[in-house]
Amino acid sequence: MIFAALIFSHSITPRLEYIAAFLSRYYGALFKLTSDEDGYIKSGCLCKINYSYHPVDKGEIWMHSHALLTESAIHPVKLELFDHASFSGAPGSYKAFFKTEGNTGFDLFAAIFFLITRYEEYLPHKKDMYGRYAHVNSFAFKEQFLSEPLVNTWLEDFRILLAERDPIFQKNIPSFTFTPTYDIDMAWIYMHKGLKRNAGAFLKSFVKGSWRSVSERSKVLRGKQPDPYDSYEWMEVLHSQYQLDPIYFFLVAHQPGKYDKNISLHNQAFKELIRNTADKYKVGLHPSWHSGDVPHWLIREKEWLEHTSGKAINSSRQHYIRFELPQTYRRLITAGIRNDYSMGYGSINGFRASIASSYYWYDLKNDEATNLLIHPFCFMDANSFYEQGHTADEAAKELARYYETIRAVNGTMITIWHNSFLGSAKEFNGWRKIYQTFIENMHSDLISA
Q: So where are the chain's domains?
């Protein structure tokens, strides 16, 4: 990586080192830190960033520093949003906070750190009905920028200041990418559930008078029609046609429960589905709800999935998007997980960390960077359907809006779909179609660009 920017600060802390590494990865150019003021002034580096309380050198980018990156404690932080004009002079503005003096007008470094570390989730807060951090607590939701990858907007605008000093920053500009992911919570709704579970379900449907369910289950079990959740062949055709590189996350709970209702791990059809999927695509673990209460189950589930798939498993996404910082991420690291796809809400779509790019997790409690790479998602079918009450057509518009927003900042769009939404289940009529149309339109748009 080419050395391209020198950052001066009187105090070099783990937090500032983390931000320098984050910037280096994002821009594909090395950001070095120094506390040597004289060496900074004499440096021949074209791009100098002065992160201190007063200007130091001519031609530098001066960013008056906020206290956040010089600290190690976690405490409430005063946040005041304001509208910031683009450095290019283009019409319009974007939201920012930590307003300061200097060329940037706000402490970009501290603001990025606050958002991507999920600083506010370490502070006292109310939890939702599932014991998760409730999205209504978040600064992004309260200030109505949850639907924006604000960090990417800042970084692309900051690129203008960087490129004015060194043209290298006009190179290595990231391009938009799309990663489709799937959570396989329940591989089939009727098939391969065993005599006991199907008998119980039949009885329950009889008692409730759910005759459509009784009839449908009977036809599926007699081979008269396909299981409504079986969408795997259709998905494979879609991936092949549009050259997609999906990731499948399998729920493999060893102990069935209220929130863990996957197919039995002893079922051969389920094992075969996992093996066939792993032969063609990337496979990750969907840690069960139970593993959140009994940590050693996480390792047991990972080992079972590795044995069954025949592949090393280093990616995960929490079932129900149930995680707590820093405990959950520490457990993933201990289990050998290196990529996590849980950064989003299980109650609303949007950008939980205000970013549409992958980044390494920073453990605020230990005040250190980690090797766990976070891959934020912005859209989940279940959020749109169950939580936001969207019709398929409304979800289609939401998907299109996220695509346009993320593409404008050269980010990565990660979506979550469930096999149940992409099958033939009547309650999800129209959802398969809007997903296919979205893929078709996106592919056509990217090809013509």
A: 3-170, 177-189+227-448
Six-digit token string for 176:
């938009």
Grouping H, G, I as helix, E, B as strand and the rest as coil, residue 7 is: strand
- Residue 293: phi and psi, rounded to 5, are -100, -30
Give yes or no for residue 187 having a pLDDT over 90: yes
Q: Of 55, 17, 57, which Cα lies nearest the Cα of 41?
A: 57
Q: Give the separation between CA 40 and CA 232, rounded to whole angstroms.
A: 58
pLDDT above 50 for 33: yes
Instruction: Report the alpha-carbon angle 100-52-164, nearest 5.
Output: 75
Q: Are strands 282-285 and 247-250 parallel, antiparallel or unpaired?
A: parallel
pLDDT score for 214: 59
Long-range pairs, 272-281, Cβ under 8 A, ≥24: 273/187, 273/232, 274/250, 274/305, 274/308, 274/309, 275/308, 275/309, 275/310, 277/232, 277/248, 277/250, 277/309, 278/309, 278/310, 278/311, 280/236, 281/239, 281/245, 281/246, 281/247, 281/248
Q: State pLDDT tens for residues 341-379.
A: 999 999 999 999 999 999 999 999 999 999 999 999 999
**Residue 61: is its pLDDT beyond 50?**
yes
40, 57 Cβ separation under 8 angstroms? yes
Take residue 257 and report the two structure tokens written for it.
């429960």
Top-level CATH class of 177-189+227-448? alpha beta
List phi, psi (to 5°) of 222.
Answer: -90, 5
Determine the 3-state secondary structure of 85 from DSSP.
strand
- Find out whether 357 and 392 touch, Cβ atoms under 8 Å: no
Query: Would you call 331 helix, strand, or coil by DSSP?
Result: helix
Q: What is the DSSP string of 153-211?
A: HHHHHHHHHHHHH-GGGGSS----EEEEEEEES-S-SSTTSHHHHHHHHHHHHHHHT-H
Give the pLDDT mean for 300-319. 98
